[in-house]
Specification:
By secondary structure, this protein is mainly alpha-helical. It has a single domain, classed as Tetracycline Repressor, domain 2, CATH 1.10.357.10. Helix 7 packs antiparallel against helix 8 and helix 9 runs antiparallel to helix 10. It comes from Azospirillum lipoferum (strain 4B). InterPro entries: Homeodomain-like_sf (IPR009057), HTH_TetR (IPR001647), Tet_transcr_reg_TetR-rel_C_sf (IPR036271). This is Transcriptional regulator, TetR family. Keywords: DNA-binding, Transcription, Transcription regulation.
Length: about 190
């Protein structure tokens, strides 16, 4: 049975959304197309009508995940105009975010996987990382410049690293110490 163009596009968006979550939870190679499509409520055959390859889907799902993360950062920052960086630090470097596998930070969840993928996936991540850096630059200063670009890079690196380390240790106290230490250092870097 043929589906309309509108339904086909809705199905495509559903697959991208599902892949965005499942890839963050399982990695690009940790979920097969059959299971991914089944979770999206579609058949595996429908995949090939909508995507050139799994790599194509990985790039599009990465873009979607990074856009979602960007929206979370923006929403957190606008929640407190007096200290816009505070809410970003608060949610990003939290135990709750550490436990969010399918909706958490795609840079943490998929960064090492993306490094082993092709140009399209890396391009999605590069664009998303640049967007995150732009947000951080705006949050730490009204004026843009090389000093703020390097601070934004240090902050993003510290936050991503701390969240990653907190996810790979078993001891909850040790995990929280990474998050707390990073939060304090991020504030120091931003205030410098």
């Amino acid at each position: 049975m043929r589906v309309s163009r509108i339904q086909a596009e809705e199905n495509r968006q559903t697959v991208i959304n599902v892949a965005s979550r499942l890839f963050r939870e399982h990695g690009f190679d940790g979920i097969g197309l059959k299971d991914l499509m089944e979770t999206a409520g579609l058949t595996q055959g429908a995949f090939y009508k909508q995507f050139a390859s799994k790599e194509d889907l990985a790039a599009q799902a990465s873009t979607r995940a990074l856009e979602s993360a960007y929206c979370r950062w923006t929403a957190a920052a606008t929640a407190n105009p007096e200290d816009p960086l505070g809410p970003v630090i608060g949610f990003y470097l939290s135990a709750g975010h550490r436990e969010e596998k399918s909706d958490g930070c795609p840079i943490v969840a998929l960064g090492s996987d993306a490094a082993r993928h092709g140009v399209a996936v890396k391009a999605s991540f590069e664009a998303g990382i640049r967007t995150h850096l732009d947000i951080l630059e705006r949050l730490i200063s009204e004026t843009q410049g090389e000093e703020f670009k390097s601070r934004a890079m240090a902050i993003l690196s510290l936050m991503v690293g701390a969240l990653t380390l907190s996810r790979v240790v078993n001891d909850p106290g040790f995990a929280q110490a990474f998050l707390d230490t990073a939060a304090a250092q991020v504030r120091n870097i931003a205030a410098a």
